Amino acid sequence: MEYEAIIGLEVHVQLKTQTKLFCGCPIEYGALPNSRVCPICLGLPGALPSPNKQAIILTIQTGLMLGSEIAPRGKFDRKNYFYPDMPKNYQISQYDQPLCKGGAVQLYPLAFPKDAQKDPQAQSRKKIRLVRIHLEEDVGKSFHFGDYSGIDFNRAGTPLMEIVSEADIRSPEEAFAYLTALRQILRYGNVSDCDMEKGQLRCDVNVSVKPIGEEKWGTKCEIKNLNSISAVRKALKYEIQRQIHILELGGEISQETLRWDDLKGQTFPMRTKEYAHDYRYFPDPDLLTILTEGELIEEAQKRIPELPEEKKQRLSQHYGLTEYQASVLASDPQLADFFEKAAAQSANKVSVANFLINDYLAVASESETAIPIPPEYFSELSNLVDQGKLHMKQAKEIVKLMVTEKKSPTLIVQEKGLAQITSLDTLDAICKEAIEANPKSVADYRSGKTAAINAIKGYVMKKTKGQANPKIVHELLEKKLHELG
Amino acid sequence: MEKPSIDIQYVADLARISLNEEEKKMFGEQFASILGYIEKLKEVKIDDVVLKGEEEGFKNNLREDLPQDGLATEDVLRNAPHHANNLFIVPKIIE
Amino acid sequence: MNLFEYTISELRRLLVRKELSPTELTEALFSRIAEVEPKINAYNYINHERAIERAKTVNVDLPLGGIPIAIKDNINVRAEPCRCASKILEGYLSPYNATVIEKLIKAGAILVGRTNMDEFAMGSSTENSATGLTKNPWDLQRVPGGSSGGSAAAVASHEAFCALGSDTGGSIRQPASFCGCVGLKPTYGRVSRYGLTAFASSLDQIGPLTKTVEDAALLLEVISGFDPNDNTSEKMPVPRFSELLETLSLKNMVLGVPKEYFIEGIDGEVREAINKAIAHFESLGAKIEEVSLPHTPYAVATYYILATAEASANLARFDGIRYGRRSKHYEDLLDYYGKTRDEGFGSEVKRRILLGTYVLSSGYYDAYYLRALKVKEKIKQDFSSVFKKCQALLTPTSPFCAFRIGEKSNDPLQMYLADIFTIAVNLAGICGLSIPCGQSTEGLPIGLQIIGPAWKEEVILALGHLYQKSTGWKPPIPPLEKT
Ligand SMILES: [Zn+2]
Predict the structure, then answer these.
(1) Parallel, antiparallel, or unpaired for β A159-165 and A127-137?
(2) What is the domain extent for residue A380?
(3) What does the alpha-carbon distance between residue C240 and residue C242 come to, in Å, rounded to a whole number?
(4) Are residues A57 and A166 in the same domain?
(5) CA C183 from centroid of its chain's CA atoms
(6) What is the DSSP string of A386-450?
(7) Of the candidates C196, C202, C362, which has its C-beta nearest A46's C-beta?
(8) Last-in-domain residue among A250, A282, A300
(9) Which one of C76, C312, C369 has the shortest CB-CB distance to A45?
(10) Same-domain pairing of A193 and A278
(11) Which of A149, A277, A303 to mutate to test the interface with B (most CBs of B within 10 A)?
């Protein structure tokens, strides 16, 4: 029997604010434990929350970018449960009036994992619908020792945006693409850095499987706290197989909360000895409702940048790029900006794009976030090629040197003596020599096999160690061969 | 209207308060009488009440995103029954 | 006249003219405390040294320059305990000042100590205190009321010139009425709650307890005002209450008497005293009109749903992890929580946490909490409509005088009904003042409640002041005896 998976994602994104959601404590990763806390985020008696305007604007902005409907009034609620990492033993969150409702994330081929980009599912341009986006505070961090645990509240109160998708996702690859596309938009909007190593994007996954054609959905399991996009894919792959296996053996899936062990590559049930979940939500009486209409929405609107899809369209039209080139560049707003700066001073925009995509990205390390050299280097490089001063093969070599040695292409050319030979006198002599040395090719050419010119050209290039300008050589040879009558 | 009955154990578990049998019995009886009294709210016609979030002319009262000094670490830890290496120590959290 | 008998306004004159130094004044108060405190037990904590240090350097030209003040034990003062009369906060030292404390310090007040209360402000008698009972200065076998019983008893027995209390359902006005002093519950949002250990956030307000209405106006002026640290505090201008006391004219003034406040079960002597006070206002030129607040009978039930629900969350933070007392014997984390909170909280606090947890628990929200929110709206509407035809309301503060210690402690519902006349004011978010208006034959004080619309403290203060001036009020010295 064939099975299909039904997947929904809850993504927690740390917003890019300077201070926490309800107090002025600075957000700082890696500070000394409990050194970034105050009476409010430590839940001291008598302390009261005071909402961060920036966090609310960023959430509304996200909703606008994803096509959500923005609630005219936002409200904070208390979600009650006891946990040592939670200072007040309730979390300030949003229950029945989230700031944003609905919206969608559109998948695109490049968002899929590299090994799946050719799959039909990667070409589908599916839209994953959103249920809601709301704002809440993060909890502290726990560390586990022998028979006790230690808590650091520095992270407690950090603004988190929870983005809940509909169960529209059907495969681990789609989940991967959804997260990639979502992260791209969040980075575009400067809403979050989404640095997964710092836990700025965390994900809970709901997954069930059912035989294809069956209407009723299976029992779902939740995998908690996945902290990388590839872990989401791996965990889902494993969990879907696990569930199918149980069903095939005639078993039943039990609804449980799971944990993903990345080293073992398995999901495990969480050993929570917990009472029933009954969060007793109620409106937080310490906080006024938030009026989103007017100032807040207007401010959020102002901050919406050109979005990936628009940028792709524009790059391809304005610079004459292929769709592939445009989407690679648009995948990262910084890369796109870099390209546009480089292209501005270059005569051949397409060649700048090619250098960036084929030569730079191929050698750049994955972890590299910013390109370490000025965009002008790429303009210079493409202009040198365009003016015939550099051979394409050499130019490709120079890209590597530009990055490793952080030097301009002109400087590299000078230092390595790589400049093309464009002097007509020099080339004329070498071409004459080449014609004399290749009588067979000359004969072939004259008998109509024009491609034979390449062999003669090859002789010239070899002789000049590749420094001859191929265009000039070609013209010279043609002229000479015709002169031969 | 029937007398509401309370599952005291369930509520005490949620509130994280261990009760002995005597307390459970006492609270159970008192709640029956208090909740019986509270039942009278059912007499009030509330269909016409719309809970607005705010009064007319309501304005947001939000904080600008500017860092402020927090507590000195000694003030943070002074009241902790048990701390070590700047961390608050609790019985083992099982995950 | 003994120095301890003076009012703030009188002391201010002496201090500014340098006829009295803050140190002399503070020492005089401490001698009175030494004499009276063993009988009353109004204070949980006294900081003699710190007060004297401060008295030596304080600037007497400030609005409260050199005036000693007592603070209820649920308002945070940096480097002082803030025990909320609870076992769970044993040994706690607060690392920060409440906004009202910042304001008092800026105004030159001298903090004397912390007054006793019902644990976490839950109660109407100050019997629910982990630090022991406070006695009523008029009869040591009776309760001072609550929850600000320590503040009221301290002011009434002249071991404080003034005090701060907090009022969630009557916790300032009811003890003021029981002890024979003045107590004011300001409009919700008038005084910052930042640093007030929360009981029910949507109802709590800090307010003054004083010997005279004039003093209450002075104190209110200092502690009021918008605070960015309290999201629910309002950006309203603060009138000069103390200067507006004399500006009121009773001509064209209509005072309402809500008929629902003169019900069966109200003590005969209380009824008589209140009627006399109403007649007094009439004789001064006010027009008295009977009005109706039809949802009054639902106030107590509404209150006990909303207040306990909020309290169940507000008190969740007391878990012995970051502060407070933790249980010594437990098996695991769950057991740890359960025992720590069982051992740390007293019965009344547990009762309210459990009740609040119940009304919010799955399946009950609409029937209890949501319904209560809507009834609260109805109660609010009752007041808005009567305030269209009158400027203030006159009612008893409590249906009876101070009761005997232990008299109501076994019947929580009867205890809750002691707040029947004060609770609606908190639910409506408006302001209320309690002033002494006579005594029972047993010599127990009776309190008149003057209720005003939101943001109209100047009106109820002026009415109270007028009453005290025209009746020649002088703060009495209670017998401090058992009767
Ligand atoms: Zn903080």
Answers:
(1) antiparallel
(2) 308-416
(3) 6
(4) yes
(5) 6
(6) HTTSS-HHHHHHHHHHHHHH---HHHHHHHHT---B--HHHHHHHHHHHHHH-HHHHHHHHTT-G
(7) C196
(8) A300
(9) C76
(10) yes
(11) A149
Single out the residue of A232, A210, A186 nearest to residue A59, CA to CA: A186
Asked whether the bond before C147 is cis by omega within 30 degrees of 0, the reply is: yes
Sign of the CA dihedral running C308, C309, C312, C313: negative
Which residues of C358-463 form beta strands (DSSP E)? 392-396, 431-439, 445-452
Contact between residue A129 and residue A168 where contact means Cβ atoms under 8 Å apart:
yes
Q: What is the mean pLDDT of each run of 10 residues along chain C (483 residues)?
A: 96 97 98 97 97 97 98 98 98 97 98 98 97 97 97 98 98 98 98 98 98 98 97 95 92 95 91 98 97 97 97 98 96 95 97 97 94 96 97 97 93 85 98 98 97 98 98 96 77
Domain shared by A319 and A224, yes or no:
no
Chain A contact present for C341, CB below 8 A: no
* Separation between Cα atoms, residue C436 and residue C447, nearest integer Å: 5
Q: What is the pLDDT of residues B26-46, one digit of tens each?
A: 999 999 999 999 999 999 999
How far is A12 from C344, CA to CA, in rounded Å? 36
Distance CA(C295)–CA(A30), nearest Å, equals: 56
Q: For position A447, which CATH number holds?
A: 1.10.10.410
Same domain, A328 and A452: no
pLDDT of residue B1: 40
Crossing angle, helix A308-319 and helix A323-330, to 10 degrees? 130
- CATH code: domain C3-248+464-470 is 3.90.1300.10
Query: What residue segments make up the domains of chain B, in order of their start?
Result: 8-42
As separate numbers, helices (DSSP H) first and strands (DSSP E) second, chain B gives 3, 2
- Residue C192 is a catalytic residue: no
At which of A366, A391, A416 does a domain end?
A: A416
Residue A291 is classified by DSSP as: E
Please check whether residue C422 is in contact with residue C397, taking contact to mean a CB–CB distance below 8 angstroms.
yes
Domain ranges of chain C: 3-248+464-470
**Chain C residue closest in CA terms to B44:** C375
Q: Between the CA atoms of C71, C76, C78 and C79, what dihedral angle is there, to the nearest 10 degrees?
A: 80
Q: Calculate the alpha carbon distances from C180 to A242, C138, C162, C355 in Å.
A: 74, 9, 13, 33
CB C164: neighbour CB atoms within 10 A?
28
Confirm if A9 and A107 have CB atoms less than 8 A apart: no
- SS3 breakdown of chain A: % helix, strand, coil, rounded to 5? 40, 20, 40
Do A26 and A147 share a domain, yes or no?
A: yes
Helix (H, G, I), strand (E, B), or coil: what is residue A312? helix
Residues A205 and A349 in one domain: no
**What does the alpha-carbon distance between residue C328 and residue C340 come to, in Å, rounded to a whole number?**
8
Using CA atoms, how far apart are residues A153 and A85, in angstroms rounded to an integer?
7
Name the domain count of chain A: 3
What angle (nearest 5°) sits at the alpha carbon of residue A134, between those of residues A130 and A138?
Answer: 125
| C434 catalytic per annotation | no
Neighbours of chain A (3+ CB pairs under 8 A): B, C
| Beta carbons of C358 and B44 less than 8 Å apart | no
Nearest Cα neighbor of A235 from A310, A179, A287, A291 is A179
The verdict on A435 and A385 lying in the same domain is no
Q: Which long-range contacts (CB under 8 A, 24 or more apart) does C53-61 make?
A: C54/C110, C54/C111, C55/C21, C55/C22, C55/C23, C55/C25, C55/C26, C55/C110, C56/C22, C56/C23, C58/C22, C58/C108, C58/C110, C59/C108, C60/C15, C60/C16, C60/C18, C60/C22, C60/C108, C61/C16, C61/C108
Q: What is the DSSP string of C99-123?
A: HHHHHHHHTT-EEEEEE--SGGG--
pTM of the model: 0.90
Residue from the list A82, A278, A281 with its beta carbon closest to the beta carbon of C319: A82
Cα C81 to Cα A304, B70, C44, C54, C93, distances in angstroms:
50, 20, 9, 18, 4
Distance CA A230, CA A233 (A): 5
User: How far does B18 lie from chain A, in Å, by closest CA?
Assistant: 13
